[in-house]
Structures are given as structure tokens and as C-alpha cells.
Amino acid sequence: MIPEEKLIDGKTISASVNAETAMEVAELKEKHGIEPALAVILVGEDPASQVYVSRKAKMCVELGIRSEKIVLPKETTQEELLAVVDRLNKDASIHGILVQSPPPKHIDEKAIVEAIDPEKDVDCFHAQNVGRVLMGERDGFLPCTPWGVTVLLERSGISTAGKNVVVLGRSNIVGKPMAALLLGKGVTGDATVTVCHSRTKDLADYTRRADIIIAAIGKPEFLKGDMVSEGVVVVDVGINRVPCETAKTGFKLVGDVAFDEVAPKAAKITPVPGGVGPMTIAMLMKNTIRACRRQNGL
Q1: Which of 70, 219, 238, 280 is the most exposed, having the fewest neighbouring CB atoms within 10 Å of its CB?
Q2: DSSP 3-state assignment of 50?
Q3: Contact 227, 208 (CB under 8 A)
Q4: Can you give the pLDDT at residue 1?
Q5: 268 pairs with which residues across the strands?
Q6: What are φ and ψ of residue 63, in 5° steps?
Q7: Where is 244: in which H helix or E strand?
Q8: What does residue 270 show for φ and ψ, rounded to 5 degrees?
Q9: How far, in whole angstroms, is CA 263 from its chain's centroid?
Q10: Cα–Cα distance for residue pair 112/81, rounded to 1 Å
Q11: What is the four-CA torsion angle of 180, 54, 221, 202, rounded to 10 degrees?
Q12: Tens of pLDDT along the chain (298 residues)?
């Protein structure tokens, strides 16, 4: 049994973030007469995507944000999807837009992302917003999962300043923007960052020297106990379904970290589920409020 003080509790921390967001929503409505609104577009019937979209819509309701859920058939063409995005771009009552990833294979996801108004790009996927993050700007939109990781660290009393941080994974959604945030100046920044990936030689040599490891490599239980040193802080971004004969569903959820091996050596570690996952949606809601404020000159 892992002591509770070792766990970084994403459920509790996300609840505190959401409470702050709810207060902001209430202020926007009561003081300014503005109702923040988020539009979520889902193309097709991918079961996992349906779950994610439902969770986002449910959180909007809980926080008082208006949610417009647009479900399109999987046969929707690129042009038809672009027309929906264009309509939402022009709708002043909609402050945030996201297209649930991944879309069907015939859809050019990059083109869709670039078609979203950068001022409504609450996922922070648009090249303009990514560039701002790389330039060190922190008052605009921030990538939801990496931002959530920094908030987890900050509210758990874990400083990154001067620390050796290894990011496992180089995706545009987590790995690259995570490194950018950690390299920035100020709170949850000022780190020395190494990004490792599938082509990194002697990867364990890097992870054993790390003060903090952020695992987002997309491989179930990839980070083993012999790959880390005593006292390391581990943030597990991964979420993978693996077969499990004892589970009623026939599978269980695991991260990119072999939790039972790594946790005994870690000073702090996130569980899966209940770690980073709740933070991603919490920060999406934060970005939606930022979008609302910016579009209303607040």
C-alpha cells in the first residue's frame, strides 16, 4: 500500500481549480451579464471520443458554462466540417471551439485546427497559440494537459526551478508544449529539460538522473522501477487499456508508469486514473473563461 502523502491527488486539485472557475463564471454572469460558452464538435461515433465529449459537456453544466455539443456523422466531408467551424467562428456568443480528436481518417485534422479562430482555440493547438507558448507568453491560452501538470506540481509544493526534468514523449499535444512550459521563467518553470522518445539511446540513463519525470510516451507501464532513482517525482500522463481477467469489463486502466514498481522509490507520484486526467478538463474550462474575457475586453 502506497502512503497517501506520496500521491499527487488530481481529483482534489482539479476540484479546487473547478471551484475557482465556477466563481469566475458567476462573476461574468452577475457583474457583466455574459454567459461563457464552449462548442464541442464530434465527428463520427468513436466510443472513447463520445465519453470525452460527454465529460466536457457535463463539466460545463456543473460550472455554469453553456455547452453546444455538435455531433456530425462519420461521413461528414472536410468542407462540411470547415463550414461548421466557420459558423462558430462568426458566432459572438460562442467563446471556445474544439474539435474532438481524432477525427475520421479522411479529415485533415491540421487544416481543421488552423481554421479555428485563434481567439477561440481553447485546446491551444493553433500554430499561433503554440508559438506564443514557445515565446514564453503565459497570459493567453495554454495547452490543457501540460498546464494541468504544472498546476499539479505547484499545488503539491513541488518546485521545478533548477531541477532536472525528463519528459518522456515528443507529441505536439503533451511532450513538446510540456517542455516549453518547464523551460519558461517563473513558477513551474526554470527547469533543465530533457525530452526523450522512442529513438533515445540509453534512455534509462536519463531517467535515473531526473529529479522529475513526466511520462507521456503512450506505452503501458513503460517506465519501470529500475529506470528511476530514489526520491524522484513522477507525473504519469498516460492512460492505456490493458486486458485484465479479474476485471468485470475485461480490461483495466494503467498509465505509462509501472506504478507498483516506481511508487515505492518515488517521493511523489500521480495515480492512474485520478491524476492528470481530471486536470486536463479543468484547464480546458479555464481556457474557455480566458477566451470569454479576452473576447469581451475584460
Answers
A1: 219
A2: helix
A3: yes
A4: 75
A5: 233
A6: -95, -5
A7: none
A8: -90, 140
A9: 22
A10: 8
A11: -20
A12: 788 889 999 999 999 999 999 999 999 999 999 999 999 999 998 888 888 899 999 999 999 999 999 999 999 999 999 999 999 999 999 999 999 999 999 999 999 999 999 999 999 999 999 999 999 999 999 999 999 999 999 999 999 999 999 999 999 999 999 999 999 998 899 999 999 998 999 999 999 999 999 999 999 999 999 999 999 999 999 999 888 878 888 888 899 999 999 999 999 999 999 999 999 999 999 999 999 999 999 9
Report, as residue numbers or ranges, the catalytic residues: 56, 100, 123
**Residue 281, number of CB atoms within 10 A of its CB:** 21
Query: Residues 251-276, buried b or exposed e (16+ Cβ, 10 A)?
Result: eebbbbbbbeebbebbebbbbbebbb
**Which helix (H) or strand (E) is 246 found in, with range?**
none
Spatial separation of the C-alpha atoms in residues 189 and 193, rounded to whole Å = 10
pLDDT at 43: 96
Q: Is 183 exposed, middle or buried (0-12, 13-18, 19+ CB in 10 A)?
A: middle
Q: How many residues does the chain have?
A: 298
Please count the other Cβ atoms lying within 10 Å of the Cβ belonging to residue 118: 17
Is pTM, for the whole model, over 0.90? yes
Query: pLDDT at position 28, please?
Result: 98
Nearest to 125 by CA among 105, 138, 111: 111
Where does the chain show beta strands of DSSP type E?
37-43, 66-72, 96-99, 164-168, 192-196, 212-215, 232-236, 240-243, 251-254, 266-269
Q: Which residues contact 110 (CB under 8 A, 6 or more apart)?
A: none
Amino acid at 126: H
Nearest to 10 by CA among 237, 168, 202: 237
φ/ψ (deg, to 5) at 197: -155, -170
Beta carbons within 8 Å of 223's beta carbon, 6+ residues apart: 168, 207, 213, 215, 217, 234, 236, 256, 257, 258, 262
